[in-house]
Amino acid sequence: MELQLDNIIKQYKNGPKALDNVSLNISSGMFGLLGPNGAGKSTLMRTLSTLQLPDSGSMTFNGIDIATSPHEIRKVLGYLPQDFGVYPRVKAKDMLMHIAWIKGVSGKKQRADLVDYTLDMVNLGQHKEKSLGSFSGGMKQRFGIAQAIIGDPKLLIVDEPTAGLDPVERNRFYNILSDLSSEMVVLLSTHIVEDVNTLCDSVAILNHGRIIAQGKPSELIRQLDGKIRTVQIHKDVLNEAAGKHKILSKVLREGNYVLRVYFDGEDESDLARVEPNLEDYYFASINAYLPNL
What is the pTM of this model? Predict the structure, then answer.
């Protein structure tokens, strides 16, 4: 299975290009799309899920042209949007039964068994008779995951899927996606680097509508070998440190900031060397610190 995007452009009226010549080849497994808010991630997810057309470029999945054959791609598509709404008065079981029918699960008993199995996967089995309007934010997010994976999709698109989930439910979701990804293409769009680092074999970074980096997380991290330093400073001298260092991230601890810094030859007398991680690469790339980007 392969999802192929070639030079996708999408521009909204009176605005910049939301997608600017986006090209990607994604095979079976987990693929992470990282980017800050406003980078174009949700625009790309909506375009791939047939909710809008690109202005130009081509998109195919296993030979299906997504733009010209939306009904065909919907037969094999699971989609969890960033903002997932529910019908508040409908029971979780009944809503998922209807979605399973839409996705082609015709037998009533088969649908019922599949619904029970899917709700148990996302830890909602005990709530199947409750109306969706009574669900908490995290429960609604889990129901969104359930509707996306029911019906055995071959292309699964999830946009900010762990928003609103506590650590236990986030780990449950990680396990679900890991189990499913061997049999489908899973595109995970998020600004949470930990999600991608935990789950994905490959990653692309989107910023201002353009793909600015892509590869295996381990390969990207290796590009920062010897380039990451850390230093602890008092919060009152943060502005001074920002003028001196290329700060990637900062954490406030007991009145002091612990900084992670991209090192490219400045004075390092007050800096301690640390091992790089994917978050370092992400911040270095979107801040244009890396000379090859």
Answer: 0.86
Residue 280 lies in a domain: no
Helix (H) / strand (E) element for 101: namely: helix 92-102
229: left (phi over 0), alpha (psi -120 to 50) or beta: beta
- Which amino acid does the sequence have at 187? L
- CATH number for 153: 3.40.50.300
Residue 109 lies in a domain: yes
Domain annotation covers residue 65:
yes
Residues 153 and 114 in one domain: yes
State the Cα–Cα distance between residues 186 and 138, nearest whole angstrom.
Answer: 21
- What is the tens place of the pLDDT at every residue in 51-104? 999 999 999 999 999 999 999 998 899 998 877 777 889 999 999 999 999 888
Specify whether 16 is located in the same domain as 90.
yes
Short-list 289, 59, 28, 41, CA closest to 177: 28
Give 1's Cβ-side CA count (13 Å radius). 19
How many domains is the chain built from?
2
138 burial level (CB within 10 Å; 0-12, 13-18, 19+): middle
Domain of 260?
A: 226-275
Nearest to 187 by CA among 94, 91, 260, 79: 79
- C-alpha 11/C-alpha 57 separation (Å) is 12
